[in-house]
UniProtKB/TrEMBL annotation, chain B:
Residues 25-247 form the Iminophenyl-pyruvate dimer synthase domain. Signal peptide: none annotated. InterPro entries: Ferritin-like, VioB/RebD_dom. This is Iminophenyl-pyruvate dimer synthase domain-containing protein. Pfam families: Ferritin-like (PF12902). Residues 162-184 are annotated as: Disordered. It comes from the Bacteria. It comes from Streptomyces diastatochromogenes. The lineage of its organism: Bacteria, Bacillati, Actinomycetota, Actinomycetes, Kitasatosporales.
UniProtKB/TrEMBL annotation, chain C:
Residues 478-619 form the Glucose-methanol-choline oxidoreductase C-terminal domain. Keywords: FAD, Flavoprotein, Oxidoreductase. This is Uncharacterized protein. It holds the Pfam family NAD_binding_8. Its cofactor is FAD. Residues 265-368 form the Glucose-methanol-choline oxidoreductase N-terminal domain. It comes from the Bacteria. One of its GO terms (molecular function) is oxidoreductase activity, acting on CH-OH group of donors.
Length: 223, 390, 645
């Protein structure tokens, strides 16, 4: 359950973390700060196979350097990118699009699971709104009465990541050519919001969106 | 630590007057705080989900040090003094010389969770009966000896004041003349390793000194502290023995004595489940432009903010303690985040060395902290808030 | 400290009292009788271990590792003492309905969506910690509003016990506000602790709602909105005005922890620091004369001479994963069933006892809870997922004339965003990334990564508000628990509960009115968009608990849905007449002078208050009565009957 990276770090760990930065929008410092980097790398390898992960990183790195960014990725690679991001954000591996699950020929069930009881509290989603995970890292008596802290703007996050990419300790070329905004400003469109759960037994990654996307053309799960 | 080191140099003697007693109590604040960064480092370098017993035991000691710090502030306020915790000179540079002790003892470094760290912790909390009776060149043998002098000073000075009042027309019959509204009580401070209580007279003052020394080294010649009798809490062993349990990986049994080895059940201690750090690292050692350097600076700023809130809590705004506790919890998150990051030098990172807080505080941090503290207090919506202007 | 024992050790032994269940009711009765010096045996069907810090920590880990953080997420399943889980229910498409697996067999038109736990401390281990009082009118709805059942005991008679319950649970509240609300009769009353601070969101609601009026057209009443703090069984600042002072009690088995709520924001399923009160605290007060055995599932109450009972038969098991067990018996002068409303009913039915009225198992109640969720405008972050589950509510719809027209309801102002309704904030991540494929399983095209993902998630989640509206369900004999031992048994051979459940028109009208009112409240609040949706989803499947309802013939028809609130009640209902109720006002069964059934099962109505506090007060009242009964039994004048014992 707990990693045993006590002596010499995994040779792929640094690259995995650095290339996760543009996926997650969190600087390498924040990613290492979860304490879960090695566990997540092991989890992704377990789900995809070690070589498929390396292939993904080999594809993602040049895609980053283009203005298209993640749009450059094949549908399957994009679903992998989503799953890796979900892992960083929640501490759990998600249920994949069934088409992606089939295309990857995975032998594990396509169901969501939490990587470890220690990973759930390290999910980055709680940091996006300056909160804390339910049931961990409690902020102290009465803190819920305080005004929530101001959140960084998109520009500030982009700047933070640019500065992180120039950290002398960061080695991979992980600064994207451009950060493109996918959705217009204002509130996020409803198809990117979760809808009600049909039952309590629906795992978070399987909750249907609040509406179907305007463009209903799915992409092919070809590899 | 400036007061504690000055007193150390002048050698052991009971405080001669109330002014000197106040100096001793200011030194007591410094001494109690000295251990907190040391224990925090040991605790927060533990990897998530591992070494739970050890983590919880060290945490319990840190809480009790916070209690001691607060009780020392209550003592100092009670005798009309003013605690001073929000300046760079309050904090020791690490590795730090242990005050009121034999100067030939090794200095106290910041160390990650390890057998060496636990040895250091035990050195700090060493019961008086374990200390060689022959004093070192300064005449000091232990922190316990320092508290004995405070205890003696409290008794003697109170008695003298009472006589002066009776025989010589001194205005006050007591040395406990401090404003009672400066006392921090249990309504403001919780989970505090026992219970904070107001110091208003000799009886409560001696109790405060007793709590401070019993929790550390145990009730005379036992392994137990006095929380069960004083606070009705679960019985637990004193700091030194709590650390010894972790060090040897076994708990004390009901009938164990200070000089026997623990004979109770085994504790699951895995020394490898810790982030190795360079305890001597300073901010300047982290490369310019590195995220770790920025975050280490940020940590120090927040630590200064915590001390600033404590200063307010200790100087007439005890309700601010309610704002200080969440900042202590913030320090937990900030330090864990640093320890989990590789040392920002690829070669050292390759050796599995990790970053960490440096506890270096400078004047400008306190200036900014005072502004923020004023803001925090103004923003509080509760009706009990007192007005504060820096 | 608790004296623990085992089933085999107590086999054949005789006690003054046997108590079945170690939740709030059982622990309160055991604590009281132990202090009076009686020999008490507490038999807990579920697993123990949470009374140690390491054992408790294990449940926190179970919670952390659970994919879905439902109320039972922290507690492992138990094959020998099974219990229901909200995960047991799934929706069906055509016709809209539900299927269920697990502990309950369900036969009703609508699902009973409430769970409980069989473990040391009972369902109190996952309660939220809400301790609002019932209103005096809640005790007499038949007299005042011509529905439901009256209580055989009044609020005034219970007052002394309610106060004691508030002290023993360790309650924090604003007594003056509660007095203003009409639920605290004494203007000088004080709670042991100061009110739990309101969330930032609560203040926004107060700023925007207080003083505004909304009309409930169905009730025909205009309601002036006012935000009230919620009294909670949660550690807060000790109240200096409380008589004798109060020192908060923290974590069991660990010093210096849990003396205040530190804002873990996970009260249900589990408070990691135990600042939320639980029966584990009361069990710390057990005297040596109280013996507690876990993993002992009572299967039957044993008949004694005449109409008395003699003791209980139970099965002890070693491994919760495998229901291998050994039968034992124990005897007592008085037997107290305190095993949860539904389990008490099953036990009475299986024992063929206390049922001369035919009402054992009938009148099953809950608080059907409708969720309404919305997004605040940009620039109005509420800071969700912080603090206890809810710290304030809107109380005006609970009382008064509106009750004559539709079931009353209490509106909780939820502090945890859209968590209950949508699985937020984790589901926000999946939705914003475009994870999981479309309705056909194909990979989605749309989705957001990187700085935009982080930025937009923060902005969205920070504006989630949710109302949880708990509707009163009155006692209806058609909602009932039965057993069929020939067809439905659990792993150790005990009969499973068979539930038949529905919401009648009055309750459905209440849910309808709650939905209409929530729309107006959201409008008054100035939300950007109301996301509430109870109808069929994109795949055509309606959620569990769905129903379509028209309050008036020809009127508007609404898609509605409800969740269970975990407030099972009514199954051994209390009354003054043996012909129409199961227990008397002391929770003694009418049929058996030495058999008590305590807990929410006795409550003739549950109003719109979370029932724990009232149930605890009833348990304390019963404990006093049982003490008197025992004292009488042991008096020399009764020596003549001694030979029959």
């Amino acid at each position: 359950m707990h990693t045993s990276d006590t002596t010499s770090p995994d040779p792929e760990l640094r690259r995995f973390v650095e290339l996760s930065m543009p996926l997650t929008g969190f600087a390498t410092y924040d990613l290492y700060a979860t304490g879960m980097a090695q566990l997540y790398l092991d989890t992704v390898r377990g789900q995809l196979g070690a070589s498929r992960l390396t292939d993904f990183l080999d594809t993602w790195q040049p895609a980053l350097a283009t203005v298209e960014g993640a749009r450059q990725l094949s549908p399957l690679d994009r679903e992998i990118a989503r799953a890796v991001t979900y892992l960083w954000y929640t501490g759990g591996w998600p249920r994949l699009a069934p088409a992606a699950h089939a295309a990857l020929r995975r032998e594990v069930p396509n169901t969501e699971f939490v990587a470890s009881p220690s990973s759930y509290p390290e999910g980055l989603v709680w940091r996006t709104f300056a909160g804390h995970p339910a049931g961990a890292k409690p902020p102290g008596f009465g803190t819920w009465a305080n005004e929530p802290p101001a959140l960084p703007t998109l520009e500030e996050i982009v700047e933070e990541l640019r500065a992180a990419a120039e950290d002398p300790a960061v080695q991979a070329a992980c600064a994207p050519a451009a950060y493109r905004a996918e959705v217009p400003s204002g509130s996020v469109p409803v198809h990117l919001m979760p809808g009600p759960r049909p039952s309590r037994a629906v795992a978070p990654s399987a909750v249907p969106a609040a509406a179907a996307p305007p463009d209903t053309e799915p992409e092919e799960a070809s590899e | 630590m400036i007061t504690a080191y000055a007193l150390t140099r002048s050698g052991p003697k009971p405080p001669a007057d109330v002014e000197e007693l106040r100096t001793y109590l200011q030194a007591a604040l410094e001494v109690e705080h000295l251990t907190i960064p040391v224990y925090m480092t040991g605790m927060y370098t533990i990897k998530p989900g591992t070494n739970r017993y050890a983590h919880d035991a060290i945490r319990s000691v840190v809480l009790e040090e916070m209690l001691h710090l607060t009780l020392a502030a209550n003592l100092l306020n009670a005798v009309g003094g003013t605690p001073n915790v929000d300046n760079p000179r309050f904090v020791a540079g690490y590795p730090a010389q242990l005050p009121f002790s034999d100067p030939s003892l090794p200095k106290i470094p910041l160390q990650h969770f390890s057998p060496q760290a636990l040895d250091t912790f035990m050195l700090i909390e060493r019961p008086r009966s374990f200390v060689p009776s022959k004093p070192g060149q300064t005449g000091w043998t232990s922190i316990g000896q320092f508290y004995d002098l405070i205890r003696q000073g409290l008794i003697d000075l109170e008695e003298q004041q009472r006589r002066d009042h009776r025989d010589r027309g001194a205005a006050s019959p007591t040395i406990f003349t401090g404003p009672p509204e400066r006392q921090v009580g249990p309504e403001d401070f919780y989970n505090s390793g026992g219970e904070v209580f107001a110091v208003t007279d000799l009886k409560s003052a001696l109790l405060a000194v007793e709590v401070i020394s019993d929790q550390g080294e145990g009730v005379a010649d036992t392994i137990w502290d006095s929380d069960d009798t004083l606070f009705g809490e679960e019985r637990q062993v004193a700091h030194y023995f709590r650390f010894k349990e972790i060090r040897v990986g076994r708990r004390y049994g009901r009938h164990d004595l200070p000089r026997t080895e623990p004979s109770g059940p085994l504790i699951d201690v895995t020394w490898d489940d810790a982030y190795p750090i360079d305890g001597a690292a300073k901010v300047r050692d982290y490369p310019e432009g590195s995220q770790v350097r920025r975050q280490a600076q940020h940590f120090n700023q927040r630590y200064a903010y915590l001390l600033t809130l404590l200063q307010l809590a200790f100087t007439g705004h005890p309700g601010v303690m309610g704002d200080a506790v969440p900042v202590m919890l913030e320090m937990r998150d900030l330090s864990e985040r640093l320890y989990r990051n590789p040392y920002p030098d690829p070669h050292l990172a390759e050796l599995d060395l990790h970053a960490g807080p440096t506890f270096e505080l400078v004047e400008e941090y306190f200036d900014a902290a005072h502004t923020e503290a004023a803001e925090t207090i103004r923003a509080r919506r509760t009706a009990t808030t007192e007005e504060y202007t820096p | 400290m608790t004296v623990t024992t085992t089933g085999s050790a107590v086999n054949g032994r005789r006690y003054d009292v046997i108590i079945v269940g170690s939740g709030w009711a059982g622990s309160l009765v055991a604590r009281h009788l132990g202090k009076q010096g009686w020999q008490v045996l507490v038999l807990e069907a579920g697993n123990g271990g949470t009374d140690t810090w390491a054992g408790y920590q294990d449940t926190v880990d179970t919670f952390s590792g659970a994919v879905i953080k439902v109320p039972n997420a922290a507690y492992r399943r138990n094959a020998a003492a099974p219990f229901p889980d909200v995960l047991d229910l799934s929706p069906t498409a055509d016709p809209p309905g539900y299927t269920t697996t697990g502990h309950f067999v369900q036969t009703g038109p609508l699902p009973y969506g409430t769970d409980y736990i069989r473990a040391l401390g009972g369902a109190a281990m996952h309660w939220l910690g809400a301790v609002p009082r019932m209103h005096p009118e809640d005790y007499a709805t038949r007299d005042r509003y011509r529905y439901g059942r009256n209580w055989p005991v009044s609020a005034a008679e219970l007052e002394r016990h309610v106060r004691e319950a508030e002290l023993l649970i360790g309650s924090a509240g604003d007594a003056t506000a509660q007095w203003g609300l009409g639920v605290v009769p004494d203007p000088d009353y004080e709670y042991p602790m100061e009110e739990i601070p309101w969330s930032h969101q609560d203040w926004i609601f107060q700023d925007r709602l207080d003083g505004k009026t909304v009309r409930d057209a169905l009730a025909g009443v205009d309601y002036a909105l006012k935000v009230y703090g919620l009294p909670q069984g949660r550690n807060s600042t000790p109240n200096p005005l409380f008589d004798g002072g109060y020192r908060p009690r923290g974590t069991v088995g660990r010093p210096n922890f849990g003396e205040r709520c530190v804002g873990n924001s996970s009260c249900t399923p589990i408070c990691p620091v135990q600042a939320k009160s639980s029966p584990l605290r009361l069990q710390q007060d057990f005297t040596d004369s109280v013996h507690l055995a876990t993993r002992c599932v009572v299967s039957r109450v044993l008949p004694g001479r005449g109409n008395t009972v003699r003791g209980v038969e139970f099965r002890e098991y070693g491994d919760p994963a495998t229901p291998v067990s050994t039968p034992y018996t124990a005897e007592a002068d008085i037997v107290v069933l305190a095993a949860h409303a539904i389990e008490n009913a099953v036990l009475l039915l299986a024992s063929e006892m206390a049922n001369s009225s035919g009402y054992v198992g009938c009148h099953l109640m809950d608080h059907p809870t409708m969720l309404a969720w919305a997004r605040m405008p940009q620039g109005v972050p509420v800071g969700p997922f912080r603090g206890p589950g809810h710290t304030t509510g809107l109380e005006c719809f609970r009382f008064g004339d509106g009750r004559g027209k539709r079931a009353p309801f209490r509106i909780e102002i939820g502090n945890w965003g859209w968590g209950w309704a949508t699985g937020a904030p984790l589901s926000n991540v999946g939705a914003m990334l475009g994870l999981g494929g479309d309705a056909k399983g194909e990979i989605k095209k749309e989705g957001v990564f990187g700085p935009e993902l982080r930025n937009r998630l923060g902005d969205e989640i920070n504006r989630q508000v949710q109302l949880q509206i708990a509707v009163e369900q009155h006692a209806d004999p058609a909602n009932r628990v039965t057993i069929d031992p020939r067809r439905h048994r659990d792993g150790v051979g005990n009969p499973k509960p068979i539930l038949h459940y529905d919401l009648d028109k009055r309750v459905r009208d209440g849910v309808f009115a709650a939905r209409k009112v929530s729309q107006k409240i959201f409008a008054a609040l100035g939300v950007e968009k109301d996301f509430t949706h109870h109808g069929p989803g994109p795949d055509g499947v309606a959620p569990v608990g769905y129903f379509k309802h028209q309050a008036e013939p020809g009127g508007e028809a609404l898609d509605l849905a409800y969740h269970g609130a975990g407030h099972g009640a009514g199954t051994h209902i209390m009354g003054s007449s043996a012909g129409s109720s199961v227990v008397d006002s002391y929770q003694r069964t009418h049929d058996h002078p030495n058999l008590f059934a305590v807990g929410c099962g006795s409550m003739p109505s549950i109003g719109t208050s979370n029932p724990t506090l009232t149930m605890a007060a009833l348990a304390l009242r019963s404990a006093e009565k049982i003490h008197r009964d025992l004292a009488e039994l042991h008096q020399p004048v009764t020596l003549a009957t001694e030979g029959t014992r």
